[in-house]
Design a protein that fits this description.
alpha/beta; Arc Repressor Mutant, subunit A; 7-stranded parallel beta sheet; 26 helices
Length: 616
Amino acid sequence: MQEDIILSVLEGKDTLALLPTGGGKSICYQVPAMAMDGICLVISPLIALMKDQVEHLTARGIPALSIYSGMGFHEVKKTLQEAVHGGCKFLYLSPERLETNLFKDYLASLPIALIAVDEAHCISQWGYDFRPPYRRIAALREWLPEVPILALTASATPPVQADICAQLLFKKDARQFRKSFARPNLSYSVFMEPSKQNKLLDILKGVQGTAIVYCKSRKHSKEVSDMLNRNGIVADFYHAGLSNELRNTKQNNWIQNTTRVMVCTNAFGMGIDKPDVRTVVHYDVPDSLENYYQEAGRAGRDEQKAYAVLLYSHRELEELKGQVDIRFPSAEEIKKVYVAIMNQLQIPAGHGQGQTYDFEIGHFAKTFQLNILTVTYALKALEQEGIFMYNEVFFKPSTLVFTTSKDELRDFENTHPSLTELVQGLLRMYEGVFDFPVNIIEAAIAKFIHLPAALVKQQLQQLHQYQIIQYLPQKESPQLYLLLHRMYADSFQMDTAAYLKRKEKYQERVDAMLQYVQADRQCRSELIAQYFGDQTVTACGICDQCIGNKEWTFSKVEFEALYDQIKKMADNQPITVGSILEKLPGIRKEKIWKLLDFLQAEQRISATKKGEIKFT
């Protein structure tokens, strides 16, 4: 559907595009943008994805820039100036940046021809990943009434699709495109397993090629990775608590097939384009079909046969049912967490908006003797109220500014010749570094001046200690970004009605996930498609349910032959089912049960008080 979507955009129509994971969403705005005069404004919440897209575009000679949380005022200003005057084609922006005064100041000068809203489901508070800053995208309509909007998502239910169009103020002639949710090459399976380790080993030994194994906790991802390595399967683990550098190394090793299996939390996979993933295994049950479909859909993007396997235990299903109350703490608990956070950060009432703070959730919970799950989901609720943003994979690059005069710097170089090469490299690479802090990349500096990266970092620290520069290394610790000033304790409020509605919608998503896991005979592809409002998908023929249904289906000849066998076995006497199963070892027991169910429904057999069957 890419061509249809592109043509709709080129006709100037507001467009909603639902393309499943791996469906090539970025092409749908990149192609029309290249055919238009002006800039394509791409709004995305995924910093890593923005950076990746900008690198890919610039490598092809297409000017692209990005602005995201963590960038300093002067760096943002410089980027916006470049977008206005430098012939920029794509400007990637995180949603919270839209309403800053600095962006508004430059907006009138930006020749915006198209607005692309990626991960558009984030705009709906009835969806699974609601992000309040997305609600403010609609303000662009007031400033740019004639500019078409392209909203893109991989997973949105019909109510969320309608909400996306409403929230973005789509015009009456807006168009919607929904690619089929069928994945003809992807075989879905679900197994209730008392020993998940053994089942996982069987799967990975049975299906060769690259794999992803999703776990719910960081600790679990490492444990499973270690187990696979002990059994001769080259694996690694990945989660948001690792440094940015280590995450990149692990990801690259997996992409280049040095690592066969990546065992990870849901922090892994977004924006990664690896077409030859043969298997995605969910070692733990996800809490929604949206998450499951998106993660499972990373298998088989090359359209070759691939497998999506979900392992579960009955205990997990009971825990999932109990998640609703855990995930939605009371308003009183949320307020308590908010006040404690403000106190820890020592933010006075009426201050703090636009500031970023280091914030480690485990340390905070321990300090204030709070339940860590309560804190986690209270943070989520406060995010959804638009009070602040908490991001464990927040990327705040290193910054540097010279704090000495040019004359003093010249004298310093004469007395410290070992640092001269670095100083001169900084001056050549970063314009304005004497005037305001600039974002730097230590690895790029090292490459530019032909020194080891470790030595460059060491020398930057030396220059900082000599008070020649102010050097703030890259932050990869979790960050809390305040969207509002601290509220006075008695003025704290939240939209309770909307909060309870989100709780109700979460319950519906849990119920849908449970239905998928416990499905009896219905094709799993059909189940997923119907959940997302796609009624066109028919039985896939390759999921565990379809294969089972084939194996339970009788031909007329087979039915009569099996019926005769069992009747002779009974010899007009009552017989136990166990005895029948024992005497027919070559026939699947499911088929025998199906035959007996049919015969009982037809009243051709009946059950005795002892539980035996007899022919009537």
